[in-house]
Input
Amino acid sequence: MLTKRIIPCLDIKDGRTVKGVNFVNLRDAGDPVELAAQYAAENADELVFLDISATEQKRKTLAALVLKVAEAIDIPFTVGGGISSVEDVAILLNNGADKVSINSAAVKRPELINELATQFGSQCVVVAIDAKQVNGEWLVHLVGGKVPTQINLFDWAKEVEQRGAGEILFTSMDHDGTKAGFANQALARLSKEVNIPIIASGGAGNVSHFIDTFTTGNADAALAASIFHFGEISVPNLKQALKAQQIAVRI
Output
């Protein structure tokens, strides 16, 4: 049985870790390299770094941060934010990232997924999908959730798999930062409709939410931010609780 993964997520803005609710109202959560080292020591399975202020000028800053993180930890980590070309990805992987996450750029030019999978292998390519329910339909949103599209979540998930993505990071914007639980019905449907791993994101508030997303939602991994950053749940305690529920985790 494949183990379920616990993935702390660090949203990076101007070199600091930040966290908000429903993608807004950001507050400082600490130094990303220090947090990364802490989570690695606590036996987190992977880390995700998302540069939410990514611009052309800040690409070099992100690449430098990736190098520092790679030197500080010994677990896989994914980097995303403003990535739109094979060249962007090459720099980040060369600096020590294990995977990259692409979102808006993939929607705007889906061929990018094929190019990255061909150049670097599917195992390096995570497609992040931010979606929310609009009149009962899950629709994809871009640019940190600011720009709605008419693209159906499940149709897009199937397309990114066909184009070579190795994983999908699905964030429910309706649940993000609310600590009210993950979007398990949508996650369960995603896990049926695609054959690549699904990372659940948005809504983690307590241990039972993780149990639910691994059982009801059938997620392969669960990502969370503020509950880890602000010490509400520790990774070791969470894993022990999951193990007690017969959920396979790496202790």
About this structure: Residues 59-72 form the longest helix (14 residues). DSSP finds ten helices and twelve strands in the chain.
